[in-house]
Amino acid sequence: MMASEAFASRSAPFRLPDELARELETSYSEPRRAYHSMAHVAEVLRWYDEVAESIGWEQPGEVYAAIVFHDAVYTPGERDNEARSAAWARRADLPVDRARVAALIELTARHGALAPGDVDRDAALFLDCDMAIIGAGVDEFDSYDAAIAREYANIPLETYRAGRRAFLAGLAARQRIFLSDYFHTRLDAAARANLRRALGALDQAAGRTTV
């Protein structure tokens, strides 16, 4: 299999150069990545194709490149993962507006802090593709939740649980979890059920009483 096939998409308007694809695949295959791996990229690309085939992208090349690069640099707990991933995308020789690609990647640092009016159509759909796991089926969501915990296994458990709870509770409290109508309609109900269940499990582990 050619390296670029690891980032295959039915809807991508170009093919990654094999050398770049190999570099990216090596990065996404780092042992510390229990969730932010090639499997995650493949899942986001699946949603990219679904959006492309149902309602379309305004800048399909830029969104595809942003998906491929959005977690290219990832160290759990570091605050500059998105900025470093965006910087790598800016250096890549691809037939896209690299400034736009970098801007999309940098938006992923603000998951859970943006409202629909804060971003344009493609950005909303891109961010929702990345967050679609929140609205996945129970087993898939639970696998994701456990994988995130494994990625943060090097920090104290209570510290992890507190941070994780804050993130999930923040999502649950938002009027809109997903920024686009496309994902809101399809995944909001499942996402809220997953969040209630995950928060209940964290509260039970911490000995809290939930209502």
Tell me what the structure shows.
- The chain has 9 helices and no strands.
- It is an all-alpha fold and 211 residues long.
- The chain starts with 17 loop residues before the first helix and ends in a 5-residue tail after the last helix.
Helix/strand layout:
Elements: H1 18-28, H2 38-54, H3 60-69, H4 81-91, H5 98-107, H6 121-131, H7 138-151, H8 157-173, H9 181-206
Give the termini distance in whole angstroms: 52 Å
How would you characterize the largest beta sheet?
none
Kindly estimate the percentage of residues that lie in beta strands according to DSSP: under 5%
Helical fraction equals 55-70%
Q: How many helical elements?
A: 9
What is Rg? 17 Å
Number of strands: 0
Mean pLDDT: 95
- Poorly predicted residue ranges: none
Order of helices and strands: HHHHHHHHH
Structural class: mainly alpha
Shape: globular
Summarize the structure.
With 211 residues, this protein is mainly alpha-helical. The chain contains 9 helices and no strands.
